[in-house]
Structures are given as C-alpha cells and as structure tokens.
Amino acid sequence: MQSMAVDSVTASRGRYASIAADIGTFVALMRAGFRRYSTYRQATFAGAFTNTVFGFLKCYVLLAVAAGAAVAGYDPARLATFVWFGQGLLAVVLFWGWTELAERIRSGDVVSDLLRPVHPVTSYLAADLGRAGHAAVTRMLVPVLVGPLFFPVYVPHRWPTVSLFAISVGLAVVISFGCRYLVNAVGFWMLDVRGPMVFWALASGVLSGLYFPLRFLPDWLVVPLWLLTPLPSLFQTPLDVLVEVDPTPRQVALVALQAVWAVLILLLARFVQRRAEHRLVVQGG
Fold it and tell me: 25, 62, 78, 160: which sits with the fewest CB atoms below 10 Å from its CB?
C-alpha cells in the first residue's frame, strides 16, 4: 500500500516536471522569436513609418465618408481610433508575408522540423508569439502615439475593455498564425503555393476589417461572415472591443467566439500536419 502511494507521488511529480519543461521550452521559443525580429531594426523603423503614413490616408478617407456623423455606430473619434490602432495591430496580427514553412517544405528542410521533440505547430506558434510581442512594443506604438496628436480619438469608458482588448489581440494573433500555417502547409500537396498565398492576402484584407469596418456592410452579409469564418476575428473584433461599439456582454461574446476559432484553427493545423507527415512517409520522405 505504501509502495503504491510512493509510486503515485513519483508519477505526479514526473508529470508536473514534464509540464514545467514543456512550458519552459515554449517560453524559450517565444524569446527566440522576439530576439530574432529585434535584429531587423531598419525593417522595423520602415514598417512603423509606412503604417503611420497610410494611417493618415486611411483616416482622412474614412472621416470623409462619415462626413462628421456616426456611421454604423462609429462616430469620428471611434473611426480615428479604429484606424490608428488598426495600423498598429497590422504588424502584430500579421496577415501576410510569412512563408517560412512553405519555403522549408519546398527545400526539404521541413524534415528536420519533424525530428525535433517539439511539435511543428507548437514551435512555430511560440516563435510567432515572440514576433507579435516584438511588434507590439515597436511597430504598434508609433501609429498609436502619432494618431492622437492629429485626430480626436475615443478613450474607452468601461473598465473591462482594456483587458478584453488585450485578450482579443492575443487570440487574433493565434488565429492569424493558424490560418497562415494552413496556407503554407498547402506546399505539402502543391509545388507552388503562390496562388493560395494571393487568395489569402486578398480574403484576409477585405473580409477582416483591415480596409474598412465590416459594420459598414449590410447585416445579411456581416453576420454569416462573422459566425462562419475566422476572418473578422483577426482584426474587426479587437478594434470593436476597443472602441466599445457594443455593450460589455456582446464584447465578451465576441472574444469567446475568437477563442472558439483559435482552438478550431489550431486543431485543424495539427490535423493537417499529421496528414502531411503521413504523406511524406508514404512517399519515402
């Protein structure tokens, strides 16, 4: 009896140690991703400058469309906040430009990823979260600080908004990573992934709220788009949470929907990865 108790305690300690090691590995990969992108100083500066310039253009266009009135729940201050925080989030969420997995598939280097003790989806996710963290403290700050100097912006009035916004941004990064991973993974079946990449770039830009608030569209189009696709969760949801166009219960529901999409997309990415590995084994890769 005493031996069984000792074995149980030992197994529990071993399980906790394994979980702690997995968490430590994940955090280390995040730090590596952060350090990797911190070396691209000129690209960071150029990206922040470009996002700020386009922020002025986009803000003037949307304010001209609104003509000083509230449109679909957005008054001029909310529209300005939507634009400037959106320009900052663009680099954090990252819609396009990541082709690392597709390139490694094309060159055959992806085989080395399969030999590592960490699942490819997990390792790439950790690195992408590190990248997003670097973008949040560099490229996001410039548009967010410059915009209020020239335009009146909306300041959230409800105390849960800031925490919900932070959670929503984190979920948007995870969803974006999962979608980009799936697009890159097409390379396991296709020699050229430029077609899917272009389709993803167009769809993610137009249908996520990047170019204009999706609430400008009719409800019969927006509601199915929001419920049946993850695209509005990439961009529209975090910004709508920030500018408080909805009451708090609806904000929470939108973030919960993001969480559901994040889980589904990651599970799908792992399933596709498993199918791709099976394909490589069958082909003798």
Answer: 160
